[in-house]
Automatic annotation (TrEMBL):
It catalyses: an S-substituted L-cysteine + H2O = a thiol + pyruvate + NH4(+); L,L-cystathionine + H2O = L-homocysteine + pyruvate + NH4(+). This is Cystathionine beta-lyase. It comes from Sneathiella sedimenti. CDD domains: CGS_like (cd00614). Its cofactor is pyridoxal 5'-phosphate.
Amino acid sequence: MKDETKLVTAGRDPEGNFGIVNVPVYHASTILYPSLDALQKTHAARAAGERVVSYGRIGTPTTWSLEDAVADLEGGYRAQVFPSGLAACANAILAVVKTGDHMLVTDSVYGPVRVFCDNFLSRFGVEVTYYDPLVGAGIGELMRPNTTAVYTEAPGSQTFEMQDIPAIADVAHAKGAVVLTDNTWASPLFFKPFEHGVDISIQAGTKYIVGHSDVMIGTVTANKEYWPQLQKSANMLGQTAGPDDVYLAQRGIRTLSVRLNQHMENALQVAEWLKGRPEVHSVLHPAMPDDPGHAIWKRDFLGASGLFSIRLKEVPKAALAAFLDDLELFGMGYSWGGYESLVILADPTSYRTATTWDNTNPLLRLHIGLEAVDDLIADLKSGFDRLNAAK
């Protein structure tokens, strides 16, 4: 089935739920057993990794519905939900590293993952080396005998470098390392991680899966080899997501295709308009033909989302504030993936370690929502008028 059909059908079970279209919300902690024999059999099945209703934290039909839909779309074996995107990132890493291990992480990684690596993993004897996101097959030169994991993200957070994930995966696997990727930007509609050598795929479902800026949730999908480690680690750490949030994510994922295609169309039109503005130094969007990562994007990806960045030309802070403060349709706020447009000021110079970000001109990350493109452009044009007046 095509993805659009999977989005409608995956994870649903009307026959098992009295014909109800959507899997109901199960609020559960305690599960009662009719006999000692039933309790013991359930316990044994759970210990063997089988999917059984045994305790609310372990899973219910509500959580399994979303997990099955995500795993089906990504092309993995099984998926696990977590209470946030960062929880998903952290748990995926913890499932595959141990004291004494070395992990390679792209220098363009989502910021909170860097904080987790530097301040949490380091306390438990896991060494992390950040690498140039453009390293490709050269990743082998950075690998050590104890390198057990390579963490990728394409395109990179804020700066949108495209990684050659298949090349990285080939080298990592040859040296016995697991490959993880953050697939939030493209979602499984526009990037198929397991077809490109990834072993574990992470999504901040808060973004495009939910799509309405009102739920925190994360997902991790693993292949068959690494699923037992992920499941065991998640259960030991007590990580799960609340049933109401899972239900809202279920609802959101059904419309992912129509939303994401519109985000892509809107973003490309806005990016093309911004490219022609005299105030803009450059547009960082891998789907643009002149972007340095366009060839990899075109080879490996099926589409683009609504998130990209622009570098402005040098401008005083007061003029930048005049541009941003009075935008009507672009809100200033973190996260993205909802129906509304957003913009934030970013500063890659503050965190890069393996590479440098030499351009000190303002970097703005934009998420293009589902508003009419003409209205978004008019809002940005008014902002540039204010910027120029304040110089």
